[in-house]
Write a structure and sequence with these properties.
This protein is of the alpha/beta class. It has 8 helices and 9 strands. It has helices spanning 38-51, 83-100, 116-123, 150-158, 160-169, 175-181, 193-205, 209-220, and strands at 14-19, 22-27, 59-64, 104-109, 112-114, 126-130, 134-136, 172-174, 186-188. The longest helix is centred in the middle third of the chain and has 18 residues, at 83-100. The N and C termini lie far apart (36 Å). The model has no long low-confidence stretch (mean pLDDT 91).
Length: 228
């Protein structure tokens, strides 16, 4: 196990390692349910950006520490107005790196992925969830609309009416519902999610990397569904 050669970060908010051709990134603010504060945003962007220089990596696992995946934005920090520029400057570059990367990204979700944390999971190429995990669209509970591309992801998977119902009512989707709607790829037991995610990542990393990257690029560029 090693860390990325091209970057050195403290383990204050993110942990990272590489085993063979599989990288693992762990959001590490467990006492805050891995919610995004300014340091987590900047460190994650820096890490993902530098990760692209790694020549041997093929698959990246993204998961959270503690009780859940990510609770979204840390609401104890003020939003610098206007919020649109805050999203464009601090969040969109992270999502763009995942969407445009030549690597396959797997979101390994346990507990709750809420708000922009759910959007982060949906931005990944594959999602594996534990049986008790859920995706939560709680934006309207605090007078906001979904960000991070959540509306695009949900409308594409659920259709207009179900997506709007989920968003307006501020509800959550259980793992089983996510699988039925095609939002995720796999469901595993809580005690197996880390091992099963790693096993799947290793299997994917043995596939032809150029073909995988090309397939991802072509599907992401579907002209009928523009993430931008």
């Amino acid at each position: 196990m090693r860390k990325f050669r091209s970057i050195k970060l403290s383990d204050e908010v993110i942990k990272h390692s590489v085993v063979g051709s599989v990288a693992e990134i762990i959001l590490s603010r467990p006492k805050h349910y891995n919610s995004f504060n300014q340091k987590l945003r900047s460190d994650l962007f820096m890490l993902l950006n530098n990760l692209e220089a790694e020549t041997k990596i093929r698959v990246v696992i993204l998961r959270g520490s503690g009780p859940g995946f990510c609770a979204g934005a840390d609401l104890t920090e003020p939003f610098p107005p206007p919020i649109s520029k805050h999203l464009e400057k601090d969040y969109k570059p992270i999502f763009d790196l995942i969407v445009r990367s030549r690597y396959i990204y797997i979101a390994s979700v346990h507990g709750s992925a809420a708000g922009i944390g759910a959007a982060l999971a949906m931005a990944c190429d594959f999602i594996i969830m534990s049986e008790t995990a859920k995706l939560s669209m709680v934006f309207t509970n605090i007078g906001l609309v979904p960000d991070g591309g959540s509306t695009w992801f949900l409308e594409k998977a659920l259709g207009y009416r179900k997506a709007l119902e989920l968003i307006v009512e501020g509800n959550s989707l259980e793992a089983k519902e996510c699988l039925e709607y095609g939002l995720i790829n796999k469901i595993v037991s809580e005690d197996r999610i880390e091992n099963d995610t790693l096993k799947w990542a290793k299997k994917l990393s043995d596939r032809a990397p150029l073909a995988s990257a090309a397939a991802k690029r072509l599907l992401r560029k579907n002209p009928n569904h523009n993430f931008e």
